[in-house]
Amino acid sequence: MIRIFICPGCGRTRLVSKFLKAECPICGTSMDTLAVTYEAWVELSEEERKQISEEWLQTGEDKYKKGNLFVTKEE
Ligand SMILES: [Zn+2]
Q1: What is the pTM of this model?
Q2: Ligand 1 mean position to 30 CA, how many Å?
Q3: Residue 7, class by beta-carbon neighbours within 10 Å (0-12 exposed, 13-18 middle, 19+ buried)?
Q4: Is residue 39 predicted with pLDDT exceeding 80?
């Protein structure tokens, strides 16, 4: 399973498979997971991804952590 990680320091996002933890390649901060599925993430444009990470940094992670925004259920 591939997870989307985001850095709480700089907003950098990263795709990580296998590992449950990741460090930011830019600032070395340990990254949080984003509640966006890989399937949904790859459908997004570069702009939309940037928007999400900016919003995540500004509003805190709640929406993208527990919300079902962009999260699709596997059926
Ligand atoms: Zn960072």
Answers
A1: 0.76
A2: 8
A3: buried
A4: yes
